[in-house]
Amino acid sequence: MVDPLHAHQRAQAVFAAALSRVVPEQIDAPTPCAEWSVRDLVDHVVAGNERIAGTGASAQPRDLTGLVEAHAASAAAAQAAFASPGGLERQYPFRTGPIPGSVAVEMRARDVLVHAWDLARATGQRTDLDPELSGWALESSRQFLTDALRGPGRPFAPEQPCDPGRPAADRLAAFLGRRVE
Question: pLDDT, tens digit, for every residue of 28-56?
């Protein structure tokens, strides 16, 4: 069992590490997330962090250095919000409505981790990200993700095939609808 606050912090660190290996020429590269470039993907993660932190959406920088800095600041702010007194009890805004922090922190950890996979995949990096955290995120995802959340107009695509011998991060990505093979 991974502590959710620690999982969130680790997922943000995994994302930051993948982002640190992106080169400027890759900023407009496509990602496994349909219609999102690398820049769009980073913008999405930063915006999610800012929503948790309650800082509102800021204008996102367009260059790689600015995106790295925006992610670092927003990740720290989101972690501080969850770790603050009552941070896991308060309600956080999501598309589906308010969600308690104890659930939101796990959702953000999974989301940031799978987007780290997307970023790594889009930029030719290794995708065997933090095996322990990826295994936790996969098991956690299997507990909450139902068929009602999959398909057109829903948050997740259908599960994709993935060899069970692949790294846990690849299996997580496939479970969440990414093509890994």
Answer: 999 998 889 999 999 999 999 999 999 87
Number of domains comprising the chain: 1
Helix (H) or strand (E) holding 92: strand 91-92
Q: Which amino acid is at 126?
A: R
What digits encode the pLDDT tens for the residues 120-159? 999 999 999 999 999 999 999 999 888 888 888 887 888 9
Enclosing H/E stretch for 99: strand 99-100
| Tokens encoding 15 | 């994302």
**Domain holding 9: CATH number?**
1.20.120.450
Distances (CA, A) of 142 to 115, 122, 136, 139, 176: 17, 25, 10, 5, 9
- 150 lies in some domain: no
pTM: 0.94
Q: Count the neighbouring beta carbons within 10 Å of the beta carbon of residue 60.
A: 18
